[in-house]
């Protein structure tokens, strides 16, 4: 399975866009990370498996942020880390698997 980066435009200035990718070590997440990195994006990669996360971050010159994406405080900490490191956050990708079919804004932390 692959993930298409659809017409994602990076800024024309010398500062590359900054992205946070949750589920970065999965098939779709790692493909997305590699595609973004090939376009010059600055990445913060987030996933549960610290070993795989560290290897992928090293491969891509990215920053690793170990996280349990079901814990909002940990997810928030990764976003804060991205902003602190890059000065901004241009996008967030959620590549974490889920079967909950409900709009995100209507989802509780318990779900």
Topology at a glance:
Elements: E1 18-22, H1 27-38, E2 42-47, H2 50-60, E3 63-66, H3 72-86, E4 91-94
Parallel strand pairs: 1-2, 1-4, 2-3
Shape: globular
Structural class: alpha/beta
Q: What portion of residues belong to β-strands?
A: 15-25%
Instruction: Domain count, please report it.
Output: 1
| Number of E strands | 4
CATH superfamily assignment? NAD(P)-binding Rossmann-like Domain
Main sheet attributes: strand count, strand direction, barrel closure: 4 strands, parallel
CATH class wording: Alpha Beta
Radius of gyration: 14 Å
Level of helix content?
A: 25-40%
> N-to-C terminal Cα separation, in Å?
27 Å
Q: Work out the helix count.
A: 3
Q: CATH architecture, please?
A: 3-Layer(aba) Sandwich
Give, in order, the helices and strands. Answer: EHEHEHE
Average pLDDT works out at: 85
Strands across the major sheet, in which order? 3-2-1-4
Uncertain stretches of 5 or more adjacent residues: 1-10
Look up the CATH topology: Rossmann fold
Give a structural overview.
This protein has a 4-stranded parallel beta sheet with strand order 3-2-1-4, sandwiched between helices. The protein is globular. It contains 3 helices and 4 strands. The protein is an alpha/beta fold and 111 residues long. It has one domain: Rossmann fold (3-Layer(aba) Sandwich), CATH 3.40.50.
């Amino acid at each position: 399975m692959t993930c298409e980066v659809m017409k994602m435009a990076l800024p024309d200035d010398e500062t590359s866009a900054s992205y946070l990718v949750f589920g970065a070590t999965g098939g779709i997440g790692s493909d997305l990370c590699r595609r973004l990195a090939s376009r010059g994006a600055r990445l913060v990669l987030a996933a549960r498996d610290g070993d795989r996360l560290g290897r992928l971050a090293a491969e891509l010159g990215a920053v690793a942020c170990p996280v349990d994406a079901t814990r909002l405080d940990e997810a928030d900490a990764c976003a804060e880390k991205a902003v602190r490191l890059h000065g901004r956050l241009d996008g967030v990708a959620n590549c974490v698997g889920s079967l909950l079919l409900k709009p995100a804004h209507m989802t509780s932390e318990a779900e």
